[in-house]
Design goal:
The complex is a heterodimer of chains A (about 190) and B (about 170). By secondary structure, chain A is mainly alpha-helical. Chain A has helices spanning about 1-15, 20-40, 45-60, 70-90, 105-110, 120-140, 140-155, 160-165, 170-190. Chain A is elongated and about 55 Å long. Chain B has helices at about 5-15, 25-65, and strands spanning about 85-90, 100-105, 115, 115-120, 120-130, 130-140, 145, 155, 160-170. Classes of the chains: A mainly alpha (about 190), B alpha+beta (about 170).
Chain lengths: ~190, ~170
């Protein structure tokens, strides 16, 4: 039903009712912004990239292939803009097609502080765990971070993640498994 | 799925969503409008440029047509049109009823132009020429070179023959 509505809106926009595009922005702004923010970790940059995502989508609507879900398509645009952003910024960017080596799991050990204090107060423990978890996600290689956020924070299926990232489903599963293992390594004290 | 993995997923899924500012959607719409205007103005500039280019090329072409002898268009059949004069050459040979009669001259780079029989034993052709002096002659049956008996102006062709001289004056 939701997808039918998206397609209806898109058809209307393509027929000239461009103001209806606002409905799509309002529907997806939170997911797209959240995704972009978790990748770039800077609010202003994330706002700019998320805005650019919708502007780009608006002008690319005539090329939109409605055999895909609009949500998948717009996540893909957002991801491509983020990848460009990292390239331009010359920030560490790992190729999606790079074989996953065992040494990548070791990167987290160097990047994350190893001090974790268990507190008898559950609330503080949860807060601390959340902070550690956010930090651990942030320190994941980008290719892992992309799929972890799509799967566990945006609730996309494996197939949708494959469409967004352009990876085979098997690779998506592998990346997720590797990412979870890497996160476990950093959060063992809280998880085991 | 192992216990740690389930626990991790639960924690991941309970992480809070980060929301954009309240004016996010209006900013997006403003950006779209700004981009639309930018694209529209680019399109207009390009359209103007193409228009100017087309007019300029048309002007150059027209100038070349009017001011040069370049074969840019068929010559208009209009007397005094664009500096050309219409000249009718009529030839009535002494030999009776030749099969073909043509005229050749420096106006045709000595290529023969077939003449049309207009009355008994008389042939005619009308050509457009700019004012000037032209040497010419008639070719009877494709082999006999005959100067124009109606023209008093004649010069040697340099090979022992005679060419007639046509003088086209500005009317």
């Amino acid at each position: 039903m939701a997808e039918w509505e998206d397609r209806e809106i898109i058809n209307q926009v393509l027929q000239g009712n461009s103001q209806l595009f606002t409905l799509l922005v309002e529907k997806y702004q939170k997911s797209i912004f959240n995704y972009v923010f978790r990748l770039v970790r800077q609010r202003q940059e994330a706002e700019d990239l998320a805005q650019e995502t919708f502007v780009k989508a608006f002008f690319a609507l005539p090329q939109y292939d409605n055999s895909y879900q609009f949500s998948t398509w717009i996540f893909r645009i957002a991801l491509n803009l983020c990848r460009d952003y990292f390239r331009k910024k010359k920030l560490p960017f790992l190729s999606l097609h790079e074989p996953i080596g065992d040494d990548e799991n070791g990167e987290l050990e160097d990047m994350i502080e190893q001090q974790a204090f268990l507190d008898p107060d559950g609330e503080i423990l949860n807060q601390e765990l959340r902070t550690k978890l956010e930090k651990a996600i942030d320190q994941l290689p980008l290719k892992f971070k992309e799929v972890v956020i799509l799967r566990h924070l945006e609730n996309l299926s494996y197939e949708e993640i494959a469409q967004v990232t352009g990876l085979p489903i098997g690779t998506v599963k592998t990346y997720l498994h590797r990412a979870r293992k890497a996160l476990r390594k950093e959060l063992r004290k809280y998880l085991d | 799925m192992e216990a740690w993995e389930k626990k991790l997923i639960d924690h991941l899924e309970s992480l809070p969503q980060v929301s954009p500012g309240e004016s996010f959607s209006s900013k997006v719409i403003s950006s779209i409008r700004a981009e639309q205007e930018k694209r529209e103005s680019k399109r207009i500039h390009w359209f103007d440029f193409k228009k100017v280019l087309a007019f300029s090329l048309a002007g150059v072409f027209l100038g070349l047509m009017l001011l040069t002898d370049l074969p840019l268009s068929p010559r208009l059949e209009t007397t005094n049109g664009f500096g050309y004069e219409k000249v009718e050459l009529v030839f009535c040979p002494s030999s009776q009823n030749p099969r073909t009669v043509a005229v050749a001259g420096d106006f045709s780079k000595w290529d023969s132009l077939q003449m049309k029989k207009v009355r008994d034993n008389c042939w005619s052709v009308t050509i457009q020429l700019k004012p000037g002096h032209y040497q010419y002659g008639f070719l009877v049956d494709g082999e006999q070179w005959v100067p124009d008996p109606a023209s008093l102006r004649q010069v040697s062709d340099g090979f022992g023959g005679i060419n007639s001289v046509l003088v086209v004056e500005n009317n």
